[in-house]
Design goal:
homodimer, BirA Bifunctional Protein, domain 2, elongated, 14 helices, Rossmann fold, five-stranded mixed sheet, alpha+beta, nine-stranded mixed sheet
């Protein structure tokens, strides 16, 4: 019996097979994400991995359903495993934002799911760091979230030579669109074409753009211009003040595929261009309004009438591209089982007392290993070496029958003798 | 729009509503689980939250389906959101156990799902620590896993006065059963009745037992005897050697509901009896064999013919009962937003330089907050107090126009002045 196609098993290293993923690397990535998010004052939240289907069709229309891991549950509800976190987060924020001081800075590491029939061999789940800020309309918030993204990638050892943030503006594209097309209901279709421009054959894009009344040339000319808007300039200045100018460039070739972005948008790419985007995000000021009952108003090009209306922005960074990139650059640490102390039980008549030592060591917060069953002394010692133990601890009966405790420093092979377990643990504590 | 019934939203504290759960408490619980598991040398793994339905019906029969969150996916596969982790783990172990040194000691913190139509208001998901040992038949492994369970509960501040491990033996029950009933296919039904004995009306149990040819009196007499088997005695001696005798008692009233247990079984309960079991587990030596193609052999009362056959045992501990218990005992810490340093920007002409200071502080691994937009000095200082910042940092223009850095220790309100950001950060580093 095997796992479902598109799902992953995560094993401890060394990995037993090329077909499985490293639980240690995943843990390292999650811990790094959390550490830098905390450094920026972001707090953790989580929501359900299963949501009403409507939460996703509301903002993206019915066509999204073709990509969802959706089904009808036993209570006849149309539900979907979450394809992204932002709608859940917007729902949570809309419900309780007034209880939190602004700006709200939150992060989460959800597992996300999709089901596209046509793409065999492609993963159907991944984990994604989501970091978002609510309640701040100023572009200083956009700069802050982009800095978090940069610092997270730096924390993995990536530099400005490894990756770049391509910064763009959905607002600039929206203005470009409305100057040329009077029908705002077609805007999303237009953004989708622009989003696919780099991956699609030019002739296909040309045809699609022409169908909407746009010329391929005017679109590519706008991208080539690269002239930052005032808003983007403010973000660039902010990043420069922190010494991050080298990490970012204006690039209108980025527009983001999802419908809900309203302002600055950005994607992080490796400079070598070997991978899909490492991360992406932007400002989505209308989403809480939409989730809390608002409707799109074509005249103002915004959403109106919802119970909650709060400026929102954020990004997502998946674990799959990041893992591949770090692996390629040799930036993933090697992981192996380890222990602080190995308790060697060479005299089985002292097993009870040795177990007491194991417990005392663990109570003192040392990771402690020992052989569950009788084992030759050499094998136990060999295991201590494999586990890169800092010390071994063993008990030995003296001539008078009372046991003594012998501690060996595995780096120096020096030995120390103690008359009680307590004394030995005291020694560990003061020498750790 | 609301979340689905039976699912939880996790918010940062202070909680905005009684209907939501604490993301901070969850993180505290997960971190404690991981910390103690690492102390015992357990390594993390994970598997898919969605599995083929067959993985669960294989060992529990079709009747389990009524409790599963199962559905047919877009590829016409019968799938289920995982109701427990052990079958996934047994699948993973069966696939690659030969690549790992024995005993294999692994843990995971999966989210688990169930869907029982009749139970309104009940949660349909929870998180569960799973810790398991593979490759050790000796009861020293059973003792080790029970010690891990005890130490995890102790790490939350719970004592032998708060909880007890009720230790039993599926093997003892199996012998009890086979002495009185020749039909091993009825064993599981019998265990289920015993499992429900404490929660069911005696008359109902009486009737059910009689239908299988057992008398209620002989069953309750066996439970009352409480005589430990040799195997249980060895476990008790091992626990006593570590000073854990007070945490455990033999109690044949425990048998565990799931079909796959074969040896010692146990459950942790709060001594006041206010809650359902805090944790439960036991030995399930046949499961990898079954998962890898083996079939139940009634003659030997074991599974035979699978590709893999490895001794297995473990336990699960859910987050829901544990959270309720810790809350009741006042053992959950209070959580609030915090920062190491607050950078106060009192002179907006120094915002750029202040941003540079923010970045330098964060690069030095201090969690650092500042106001994204201009804000009155008093409000910024008040925010630093709310965040329990250890220091504030601010820049001030001297008469000659060059800025100096002023660091305030928030505990003593002492101030230090530095001519550069670098010097100030050096001061933080040496005084943290």
């Amino acid at each position: 019996m095997d796992r479902l196609p598109g799902f992953r098993d995560f094993y401890p290293e060394p990995l037993p097979h090329k077909d499985v993923w490293s639980a240690d690397a995943r843990c390292y990535i999650f811990d790094t994400w959390k550490k830098i998010a905390h450094r920026y004052g972001f707090r953790e939240y989580d929501g359900p991995p299963l949501e009403p289907l409507e939460l996703y069709t509301l903002k993206s229309g019915e066509e999204i359903v073709g990509q969802l891991y959706n089904f009808t549950d036993k209570g006849d509800r149309n539900v979907s495993m979450r394809p992204e976190m932002t709608p859940t987060l917007a729902r949570m924020i809309a419900a309780h934002e007034r209880n939190y001081r602004k700006p709200i800075k939150w992060f989460s590491i959800p597992q996300l799911f999709r089901y596209e029939r046509q793409q065999k061999g492609r993963l159907r789940e991944h984990f994604q760091l989501n970091a978002d800020i609510f309640g701040e309309a100023s572009s200083s918030a956009d700069a802050e979230i982009i800095c978090l993204l940069i610092d997270i990638l730096r924390a993995f050892g990536l530099t400005a030579e490894d990756f770049v943030i391509r910064l763009s503006s959905r607002r600039a594209w929206s203005e470009f669109f409305s100057k040329r097309c009077p029908d705002p209901s077609k805007a999303y279709e237009f953004y989708q074409i622009v989003d696919k421009l780099e991956r699609e054959e030019p002739d296909v894009s040309k045809q699609k753009l022409a169908a909407l009344g746009f010329s391929y040339e005017e679109v590519t000319a706008f991208i080539a211009s690269g002239e930052p808007t005032e808003e983007l300039k403010a973000i660039l200045d902010n990043l420069s003040a922190r010494g991050f100018a080298d990490f970012v460039k204006v690039d209108y070739g980025v527009i983001r595929g999802l419908a809900y972005y309203t302002g600055p948008v950005f994607e992080a790419f490796d400079r070598k261009g070997h991978f899909r985007a490492i991360a992406g995000g932007g400002r989505y000021d209308n989403l809480t309004n939409l989730i809390s009952g608002g409707k799109f108003d074509p005249a103002s090009n915004t959403v109106k009438g919802g119970k909650v209306d709060i400026p929102s922005l954020g990004f997502g960074m998946g674990d799959v591209v990041l893992t591949e990139l770090l692996k390629e650059r040799g930036l993933l640490p090697a992981f192996s089982p380890s222990a602080d102390v190995c308790v060697l039980i060479e005299d089985e008549t002292l097993r009870s007392q040795s177990l007491s030592a194991v417990q005392t060591l663990r109570d003192a917060d040392f990771s402690t290993e020992y052989s569950l069953v009788p084992l030759k002394a050499e094998k136990q010692f060999k295991r201590a070496i494999e586990l890169k133990a800092r010390w071994t601890f063993r008990m030995e009966k003296q001539e008078n029958g009372t046991p003594i405790c012998i501690v060996k420093n595995m780096a120096t092979r020096e030995e120390h003798r103690f008359t009680s377990i307590k004394e030995a643990v005291q020694y560990f504590k003061s020498n750790f």
